[in-house]
Design goal:
Layout lengths: L9 H21 L9 H17 L14 H13 L5 H31 L2 H12 L2 H9 L3 H20 L3 H17 L5 H16 L5 H26 L7 H13 L6 E4 L2 E4 L7 H9 L2 H12 L10 H24 L14 H22 L3 H11 L1
Antiparallel strand pairs: 1-2
């Protein structure tokens, strides 16, 4: 799909690096404008306990209630703090904020690549990144939220490596995808969703495959899928220190912890105070709607409706791409609703589905742009309406 036709000029080639240089420069200049969030000290302490467990065999971590929350990243941030010989509290948190922004920046780079792969257009991909970073809630959290923003960023990277693996099933792509999925799962147990998506999409692709090439395709796919599974399991244990002594027991404890998080506070929602353990099913959809720019929502609805256009899918890759995007949004929300999981601070725990919402927003923009091309005959009128749309 090509949203915009453009000449392959030098300006078109330079727009991407210039955009990301400006974006990174902005983050570099403003990261010290953000204060400390309420749970940052707890996250830093988690990093310290993980560091002490890895390097000093201190097992305090194994009994801590937050032991399943992004240990490897927090340990990395604490190690960065040790390497930089930072002593003042202010400098400690400024270092964390800059590192957190760098992780978000990396996620944006891969989101650009993911959008470009789906829409085959640099400009469309840049528009997707702009939609992501111009969301005030996401951009602010990019500096001080070391839980949800890194998870979102790694989730984006894992979906990009999933695309690479689906396009070219080789040991190399399977191994890269497995390593990223392992890092994602070690960051938060919900990272299990991407390996689930991988298995489901592979099964569907096998079902769609023509009989003539089925045997060779099946053998190759089975080999790479087994390689992915083995590397994923081993790497997850390596990246998740709390699993080192008792992998299976601790892993199932993490699953239980996710579905029944031990926080029993109250929150203001729709004019009433409600308990975190008694959230209505519409809590997440309402918060997403309230905090997403209205224009995004309009294009998102249009993009979502495109799934039901008759005769839209002419090849299997388009079906699988759209299915992956839909699963990215629907599965986490349904999981939380069905398990009645504890969520607080609006929907920040589900920030990782926001890039998928933007992918559908871009699709809605594409449909709207095509509608203008096909229904406004005069060039002058078409150009005017197109400019208003932008």
């Amino acid at each position: 799909m090509i949203l915009l036709k453009y000449k392959n000029t030098l300006a078109d080639k330079l727009i991407v690096p210039v955009f990301f240089i400006i974006f990174f420069s902005i983050g570099t200049f403003i990261f010290n404008d953000y204060g400390i969030s309420w749970d940052e000290p707890f996250q830093r302490n988690l990093g310290k306990m993980t560091y002490d467990y890895i390097f000093h065999n201190d097992e305090t971590l194994l009994s801590h209630r937050e032991r399943f929350h992004g240990q490897i990243l927090e340990a990395g941030l604490y190690l960065l703090e040790k390497i930089s010989f930072t002593s003042s509290t202010r400098q400690v948190y400024l270092t964390r904020h800059f590192a957190n922004f760098c992780i978000f920046f990396s996620g944006c780079l891969f989101f650009y690549l993911l959008c470009k792969k789906q829409f085959k257009s640099r400009r469309t991909a840049l528009m997707g990144v702009l939609f992501l970073i111009l969301s005030p809630r996401i951009f602010a959290h990019a500096f001080y939220n070391s839980k949800d923003i890194p998870f979102m960023s790694i989730f984006i990277i894992s979906m990009y490596t999933l695309c690479l693996y689906m396009e070219n099933k080789s040991f190399k792509t399977a191994a890269i995808h497995a390593l990223i999925c392992a890092l994602l799962t070690a960051t938060r147990v919900l990272g299990l969703l991407v390996p689930f998506f991988t298995g489901l999409l592979i099964c569907l692709e096998i079902a769609f495959k023509k009989k003539s090439s089925e045997n060779y395709f099946f053998k190759k796919t089975l080999f790479t899928l087994c390689s992915f599974t083995g590397i994923y399991v081993i790497s997850t244990i390596i990246f998740w220190p709390v699993l080192w002594k008792s992998p299976f027991f601790q892993f199932f404890s993490a699953l239980k912890h996710m579905s029944n998080y031990p926080w029993t506070g109250t929150m203001l929602y729709m004019g009433s105070f409600i308990k975190s353990t008694e959230l209505p099913w519409h809590y997440i959809p309402v918060w997403i709607t309230l905090t997403t720019p209205p224009l995004y929502l309009l294009f998102f609805i249009t993009g979502s409706a495109s799934f039901f256009i008759p005769g839209k899918y002419k090849n299997n890759s388009n079906i699988l791409n759209d299915l992956a995007t839909a699963l990215w949004i629907i599965t986490p929300v349904l999981t939380i609703i069905v398990l009645n999981s504890v969520i607080y601070d609006a929907w920040r725990h589900l920030f990782f589905i926001y890039p998928a919402i933007i992918l559908l927003t871009l699709k809605g923009f594409y449909i709207t742009n095509n509608f203008i091309k096909n229904h406004f005959l005069t060039t002058k009128k078409k150009r005017l309406i197109k400019n208003i749309l932008y």
